[in-house]
Design a protein that fits this description.
This protein has one domain: 3-Layer(aba) Sandwich (Aminopeptidase). By secondary structure, it is an alpha+beta fold. It has five helices and ten strands. The chain binds acetyl coenzyme *A. The site of acetyl coenzyme *A has 25 residues, from helix 1, strand 5, helix 3, strand 6 and helix 4.
């Protein structure tokens, strides 16, 4: 589970593995998903970080953190812009589901901005459903205003995937 080696179309090789040492290269990705270094540092300590390498190049990162005995949260997921829209986040989300199932979690949570349309599309496509809203989360927790898709980001939407309701092929990694 800690290593996921695969071939894409028989040629392109990718690997997902847990990382212990966070490098500057990892930081660049982490801050794409969450511009608050303070918040990221906090969940890096208690969470588990996974990197995605495509043909040995770092392409994406994901941080998983236990919320409670039955709940796992994806605290951070980010793909290098050069590798976007190639299905890498989809693979990482499937990996998170496999990890959650293996470790007996029942639900996987993910929080994202209410203005993050691509993310909301992807997460709902992968089986996440909106659970609740953290109103003014981004206004209260971030030093600077965040604008996305032409809107001021204020609220966080928390989405939950119930593992018993997910399609079986989401566990294939
Ligand atoms: N609106 C809606 N859907 C879109 C848009 C858009 N503007 N652009 C692309 N898409 C679709 C793609 O067509 C694709 O769908 P499809 O598979 O049905 O064709 C899907 O969105 C993208 O799927 P992937 O390729 O698996 O995703 P990708 O590898 O590009 O990663 C991610 C998505 C993680 C959101 C990446 O864009 C990224 O790192 N963004 C910046 C950081 C970020 O916002 N991270 C998430 C924050 S929330 C958190 O970390 C908990």
């Amino acid at each position: 589970m800690s290593n996921d080696h695969n071939q894409i179309k028989g040629k392109k090789h990718f690997e997902i593995k847990q990382v212990e040492k966070i490098t500057d290269e990892h930081w660049k990705l982490l801050l794409l998903a969450d511009p608050s270094k303070d918040l990221v540092e906090r969940y890096l300590q208690s969470g588990k970080t996974f990197e995605f390498r495509k043909n040995t190049k770092l392409a994406a990162i994901m941080v998983l953190k236990e919320v409670s005995q039955f709940k796992l949260e994806i605290k951070n997921i980010a793909v290098d812009p050069a590798f976007e829209n190639q299905g890498i986040a989809t693979r990482l989300l499937k990996y998170a589901f496999c990890y959650a199932k293996k470790h007996q979690y029942q639900q996987v949570l993910i929080g994202t901005g209410s203005t993050s349309f691509k993310q909301l599309y992807l997460y709902q496509k992968m089986g996440f459903r909106i659970s609740h809203v953290k109103r003014d989360f981004f206004v209260k927790n971030y030093k600077y205003p965040i604008h996305e898709n032409g809107l001021l980001l204020r609220d966080m939407l928390v989405l939950v995937a119930d593992l018993t309701e997910l399609k079986n092929d989401y566990y294939k990694g």
